[in-house]
UniProtKB/TrEMBL annotation:
<feature type="domain" description="Ig-like">
    <location>
        <begin position="22"/>
        <end position="113"/>
    </location>
</feature>
<keyword id="KW-0393">Immunoglobulin domain</keyword>
<dbReference type="GO" id="GO:0030424">
    <property type="term" value="C:axon"/>
</dbReference>
<protein>
    <recommendedName>
        <fullName>Ig-like domain-containing protein</fullName>
    </recommendedName>
</protein>
<dbReference type="GO" id="GO:0150079">
    <property type="term" value="P:negative regulation of neuroinflammatory response"/>
</dbReference>
<dbReference type="Pfam" id="PF07686">
    <property type="entry name" value="V-set"/>
</dbReference>
<dbReference type="GO" id="GO:0043025">
    <property type="term" value="C:neuronal cell body"/>
</dbReference>
<keyword id="KW-1015">Disulfide bond</keyword>
<feature type="signal peptide">
    <location>
        <begin position="1"/>
        <end position="22"/>
    </location>
</feature>
<dbReference type="GO" id="GO:0009986">
    <property type="term" value="C:cell surface"/>
</dbReference>
<dbReference type="InterPro" id="IPR013783">
    <property type="entry name" value="Ig-like_fold"/>
</dbReference>
<dbReference type="GO" id="GO:0016020">
    <property type="term" value="C:membrane"/>
</dbReference>
<keyword id="KW-0325">Glycoprotein</keyword>
<dbReference type="GO" id="GO:0098632">
    <property type="term" value="F:cell-cell adhesion mediator activity"/>
</dbReference>
<keyword id="KW-0812">Transmembrane</keyword>
<dbReference type="InterPro" id="IPR003599">
    <property type="entry name" value="Ig_sub"/>
</dbReference>
<dbReference type="InterPro" id="IPR013106">
    <property type="entry name" value="Ig_V-set"/>
</dbReference>
């Protein structure tokens, strides 16, 4: 479980500490995007670790769905069902970001970044996407 430990004045950036592993991950607490805009999520592991892979997941009703992965040996991969929607903006094993293109209501929710390390395990950050302009129609 991640616990917020610091919030900036804008309340859009939050540092999380993974309670079991004590590494610090910097990520946005909330990303706001209008329908049709792009939304960017970034996660940075602030301590140097032996990261083998960074995985992005969408959390829906307590089910985690893998969205995209950046692997030390195999590079980047966007999973089926997300290839037209998600792309990497920056790929790195300590700092990784994705972009959700042309945001819709269905994209709203929380996303996790997992820094998978050896031998320590996973360090996890979480960002939630809030979509506005959902019911706005031009006459």
């Amino acid at each position: 479980m991640c616990t917020p430990v610091w919030v900036s004045a804008s309340c859009l950036t939050c540092l999380f500490v993974h309670t079991a592993l004590t590494a610090v991950i910097q990520t946005q607490q909330t990303v706001l995007a209008a329908v049709g805009e792009d939304a960017e999520f970034s996660c940075q592991l602030l301590e140097t670790k032996d990261v083998l892979q960074v995985t992005w997941q969408k959390i829906s009703q307590d089910v985690e769905t893998n969205v995209a992965t950046y692997n030390k040996y195999f590079g980047q991969r966007v999973n089926n069902g997300f290839t037209d929607k998600v792309g990497f903006k920056y790929t790195g094993l300590q700092n990784c970001s994705i972009v959700i293109r042309n945001v819709t209501e269905q994209d709203e929710g929380c996303y996790r970044c997992l820094f998978n390390t050896y031998p320590e395990g996973s360090f996890i950050g979480r960002t939630c996407l809030q979509v506005y302009g959902k019911n706005f129609y031009l006459l």
